[in-house]
Design brief:
The protein is mostly helical. The chain is built from 5 helices and no strands. It has a single domain, classed as Ferritin. The structure holds hydroxy diiron-OXO moiety. Hydroxy diiron-OXO moiety binds next to helix 1, helix 2 and helix 3. Iron-storage protein.
Length: 165
């Protein structure tokens, strides 16, 4: 049985993962609208991945006798200055999620909740992958520049990455 405080913190994270999913789904709409079809596909696939993050937490909370609670989810930003700005935002957002996961792991450890601490290890390594992934995309766009031709190829790459994800 989890401590109520831990359940509350895990529930906050459930909401954060929902927000991540909505943010990336909304971003896919912006990409689609601007003709970046590969990026749209990539963001859509990533929105699904975030739902997986949400579900894994949801299952853990209910399996350990807690009650998952879905709160209000803030509307995500819908307008972006450029494809680079959009991906810079994803990278910042993932850094924020890493911080939240670290706080959760710290809380679990200091409360001697080793089951939750162990459960969270998956998120610790996933966040490493998430940051690496989004940083690589930001770096790529910065490297090739933002003219139409360069972005055309970045978009093609993202389409391929969406298939591999
Ligand atoms: Fe993108 O890792 Fe969950 O939120």
């Amino acid at each position: 049985m989890l401590a109520q405080k831990m359940i509350d913190q895990l529930n906050d994270q459930i909401n954060m993962e929902f927000f991540s999913s909505n943010l990336y789904l909304q971003m896919s709409a912006w990409c689609e609208d601007k003709g970046f079809e590969g990026a749209a596909k990539f963001m859509r696939a990533h929105a699904d991945e975030e739902m997986g993050h949400m579900q894994r937490l949801f299952t853990y909370v209910s399996e350990t006798g807690g009650m998952p609670l879905l709160g209000t989810i803030e509307a995500p930003q819908a307008e972006f200055a450029s494809l680079l700005a959009l991906f810079e935002y994803t990278y910042e957002h993932e850094q924020l999620i890493t911080k939240k996961i670290n706080e959760l792991a710290h809380a679990a450890f200091t409360n001697q909740d080793y089951s939750t601490f162990n459960f969270l290890q998956w998120y610790v390594s996933e966040q490493h992958e998430e940051e690496k992934l989004f940083k690589s995309i930001v770096d790529k766009i910065r490297l090739v520049g933002e003219d139409g031709k360069a972005l055309f190829f970045v978009d093609k790459d993202l389409a391929q990455m969406a298939v591999e994800e």
